[in-house]
Amino acid sequence: MDRETLLVHAARRTAAAANSVSPPLVRTSTTVFDSLDAYKQAQGALVFDGPRYGRSGTSTTFELQRAMAQIANTETCIATSSGLAAITAVLAAHAGPGRHILVSAGVYGPTRVFCDKEIVPSGTDVEYFAHDADVSSLLRDTTSLVFVETPASLTMQMWDVRAICAAAHDRGVPVACDSTWGTPIFFDAHALGVDISVHAATKFINGHSDVLLGLITGTLDALAGVRAYCDRSGAHAAPDTCWLTLRGLRTLAVRMERHQRSALAVARWLQSQPCVQRVLFPALATDPGYELWRSQFSGAAGPFTVELAPCGEDAFTRFIDQLSLFGLGTSWGGFESLVMPAVPHHLRALAAPADAPRLVRFHIGLESPQDLCDDLAAALTALRRG
Ligand SMILES: Cc1ncc(COP(=O)(O)O)c(C=O)c1O
């Protein structure tokens, strides 16, 4: 079955109310059992998709997890309370005194903060690697995980996931990937060799900007340690957010197509505008990551980053404040367009030189791309005024 068909049909036959197209939302903290035998079976260490206690999920959670595992073309899925909770569970499960974790430079800012403030003080050596680094030369006997995010948040640099997986697997090291940007629709992480794929379902997968949720996919073996960590730390998702995300999942493919079409239209239009120095978007043939994107992704929904010509704070403020269809906010992946100043997290403490280009991150929503370009044209005019 194509992924489009799976999105519609995955996990539906398992719905607790057998004749409902849409599964019921099951909320409970407590599961009760008919017999001691049933109780003992449910508490068994390998029971992942049957109710045990509210924290490990209800039928609503299991339906989303089964659907996501199917769509990601792997065995299993763990839902967590946010995308960041999914990332930190993966990192924490592989951390420990004397261990070494390789992390791609330019990861989502809070991922880096978690590494620096929680993982490093616990005695794990965290090393950031550049997109053109030779990973095989960085792997050590103590390396417990390679964590990559592609493209990188804000700088949009591409990492060669296939090559990283090959190098890491040669040394028996698992690879985790933050696959939020591509989603399983445009990025077949496990087919490229990724052992643990992490998604902030908060973004495209839910798509309606009303939920925080993380999803981790992989084989039962690859996720065993992460699942144990989630059980110990209580990182699990609430059934309400799983229910909403399952609803969002059904329309993921059509939304991604539309996001892609509009993002490309707006990005190409921006490339021809005065004051726009560069559009950082690997789906553009002019982008240095284009070939890698073409070989490892089947589409690109954005978001993307724009380098505006150096300008004063007043002009930059006029540009942002003039935008009326782009909300000023830090998220992406929802139905609505968003904008934010894009300073990579590790550079925020440094004062940018006055002649540095201004980086702005756009998420292109489901509005008409022509209306979005008109809005941007007015903002660019405001930027040039004065
Ligand atoms: C690439 C990436 N990964 C993970 C996250 C974290 O997701 P959440 O906001 O659900 O914690 C974000 C949030 O912006 C993100 O951009």
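^ pyridoxal-5'-phosphate complex. Residues 252-271 form the longest helix (20 residues). The mean pLDDT is 94.
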